[in-house]
Design goal:
The protein is α/β, with parallel strands linked by helices. It is built from 17 helices and eleven strands.
Amino acid sequence: MAVVLFLSVLLIAACGLIYELIAGTLASYLLGDSVLQFSTVIGTYLFAMGLGSAASRYLRGSLVAQFVQIELMVGVIGGFSSSVLFLAFAYTHAFRLALYLLVIAIGVLVGLEIPLLMRILEGRFKFRDLVSHVLTFDYLGALAASLAFPIFLVPKLGLVRAAILFGIINAGVALWSTFIFKDQLPMRGILRGMCVAVLVLLGWGMYAANWFSSAADNQLYADEVIFERNTRYQRIVVTSWKDDLRLFLNAHLQFSSRDEYRYHEALVHPGLSSLPWARRALVLGGGDGLAVRELLKYPKLESITLVDLDREMTNMFTHHPLLAPLNDHSFSNPRVHVITADAFPWLDENKDTWDFVVVDFPDPTNYSLGKLYTTAFYRLLRKHVAENGLTVVQSTSPMFSRQSYWCIVDTLKEAGFHVWPYHVYVPSFGEWGFTLAGNSWTPPSTLPPGLRFLTVAGIPEMFHFPGDMQPAEAEVNRLNDQILVRYYEKEWKDIAR
């Protein structure tokens, strides 16, 4: 009996933490700035738990019946929390209100659970043993949840089904409590009926999870969603309309198949075409393989290494029947070597140098990405670029995020690079910016055959900036103070107004 009781503690602790992690993750996916979102969600949740714990002293009557009812409420509210948040983001302008109302409601209910359970059990154990056992299993449940969430729950179940699964666990705890404490439940038949009803509702939610995701996605994205997946690192969505495939990461557009060639030709060829002797290339990010496709147009390149954090991305663009053709099945080319790793520690541990390095990370929407635009990262990168080699960095839009763009340029300078900033017009994005960096660069006199956009004559013009994209004053982006993330967030918020 004691084992079952303390297993209940472990499970409800795991459930509470999972709901908190889901709220923080969803807020990070949809609002950006993961540090701000997780900090405010965790702070609000802990505050609400404190309110629940304080309120528990006022509960009277049948404590077991109230515990069962609280578990059922947590199961329903927590279980459907991610579904509600996805729908709120897609259909309303009240996502933040819905987020914090849910966090407060779940936090208060979770705060009631442990004090109430301890009061129920106080006659069965010595107080010191009771406190020790309850807190031990509470912390073990939190550990289990924190490990399972990124490793299994998000990549295998997704955020909607993960929340519903733990809602089912809460309802299951409620149901078996009606048997464990049956002598203390005069109306156990009614409570068991409520438990079964909630389990049926959550079971339906598990079955209908795809509908919740599809309903939100179809409202968020103008075109038909043909692929969506939550990975350990991001939410991937691919949409389709006629011959246009679009990739979104955390709701941010990464490319449109109709015009991505403009972006990727401009990213790769101004630098690499000036290095006819180059034999080894490295791509950091770029898990769609589109930059690799452009690199493969150089027969003299003997080796191309791509390092991307998310195995799901590279797998998609290797095997998906609609996506793999976009990069001409580049990942199946024997010259290409794909490595799944975080680029920062991977570079730190690697001793090799490359003649040409493509840095094609998503925009610095949060501090996890912002670290890849810092002086620390660029100084490390410089050690891996051959003496006469070059690197090119995706640098956001000099039109829409002007200060962010020039912050990246100045950060590369601070890291010891000579820089050649340039830009190109991509219809899906507008004006987009890149930065070539190295010791020296001369505009190329030839380009590989088969390009759809870039010409030798057009390259010099890309390095001239009109008045509204001229250099803007910006601080250097450093690892301990990522000013770039704040610049970027402010500039894109100003555009959205």
